[in-house]
Amino acid sequence: MKFFVDTAEIDAIAELHALGMVDGVTTNPSLIKKSGRDILEVTKEICDLVPGPVSAEVVALKAEDMIAEGRKLAEIAENIAVKVPLTWDGLQACKTLTDEGKMVNVTLCFSANQALLAAKAGATFISPFIGRLDDINIDGLELIEDIRTIYDNYGFDTQILAASIRTANHMSDCAKIGADVATAPPAVIKAMANHVLTDKGLAQFIKDAADANIKIV
Ligand code: G3P
Q: What is the pTM of this model?
């Protein structure tokens, strides 16, 4: 499973990238707002840092306007994936931009039917939002499973990009289901390293090393 990092914070991306943890980046208008940066500038910096796909989201609602924005975003770098919402206009924009050879990430997906439409429109990525479904007591992981089944049934190339990931367990659950990509905030990716028994075992090893005066360098 590929790891994308869901942020527009350059330092956080760089830290994870140095460890080989970043196969791509996803942003959205809320993350750009949080960064306090200009969308074109910060997206260019991210693209210079990370060779994998970098999703940059349109803010228009009509297909023709989304297409214009998508073309401008795609000019930033070769590795831009234009992110469009899963609306009828978004699907139209997806088809046009895909036909022009651009990567397209169709976002705000909350149902298997929406994912099926995105694949038919040629999306490179479909972004089902796990956490926001869980927030309203609908099993977000079940949606990932359903999309996996549908895409495998018909050999769709669209990659399942599990999004709105809130916990480390979501990451391993997505990997078990066979999501192609999971995008998560830096803190969630780092939390994957945590285990109480690791902490407990390490404390004992460090104590024993001190008691036995073990020195290596
Ligand atoms: O990039 C979209 C998505 O990952 C948003 O997550 O936590 O705001 O639902 P969240």
A: 0.96
